[in-house]
């Protein structure tokens, strides 16, 4: 309820792949945002990319379960204009089609991209007219230097 | 749940309508209604299984780690 008006988050292939692999903490995190009412946008091509990486009946069911969350929208690739925009982003950024679809949605709608790997987005983001807003999922405890 | 069927009007793709009629003609479904009823029952079963799988996975999550991950994301979203 608290995040109904907050900006939707676009999931990149790394996050969708973590779901397909059954990562409990990522699934818990997405469920947490869904419970708060935060809109989550899943690019259809990110699902294709994730299933190339982790294809099994269980992966199919986990990604099918993602679609059943209350605040999840699957973003299709529709029409010539969107296909041309995707091709332009691939050419400019060097991203694969799976993540380029996330970039295309985020670039047009000005939504943040949720990723497990912010580093892979630095160069592609710099290649676009407006930099993308990249949000990294990371455990602060795992990055603390040991005393 | 009542055994009594509800009546509803639906619009379906022509190829699916043709397929349902073929199931009836070949004796694999009692009626077009039965064919669509069975398809919807199967979807309901699949969705239940998928929700159950999500619940099972999220039950295995480490709540403290999930809270840290969400706090880190929230911090970036609010520009903190």
Q: What labels describe this entry?
A:
heterodimer, A: 147 residues, alpha/beta, five-stranded parallel β-sheet, 5 strands, globular, B: 80 residues, mainly alpha, 0% strand
Separate helix tally of chain B: 3
- The rounded Rg of chain A comes to 15 Å
> Quick one: overall form of chain A?
globular
Q: What is the string of SSEs of chain B from the N terminus onward?
A: HHH
Biggest interface, residues from each chain:
A-B, 28 and 24 residues
Low-confidence stretches of chain B: none
Treating each run of at least 4 consecutive H or I residues as one helix, how many helices of chain A?
8
Helix content of chain A: 55-70%
Q: Helices and strands of chain A, in N-to-C order?
A: EHHEHHEHHEHEH
**What's the helical proportion of residues of chain B?**
55-70%
Structure overview:
The complex is a heterodimer of chains A (147) and B (80). By secondary structure, chain A is α/β, with parallel strands linked by helices. Chain A has eight helices and five strands, in the order βααβααβααβαβα. In chain A, helix 5 (79-93) packs across helix 6 (97-109). The longest helix of chain A is centred in the middle third of the chain and has 15 residues, at 79-93. Chain A is globular. Chain B has 80 residues and is mainly α. Chain B is built from three helices and no strands. Chain B has helices at residues 14-25, 32-59, 63-77. In chain B, 11% of the residues are buried. The chains are: A alpha/beta (147), B mainly alpha (80).
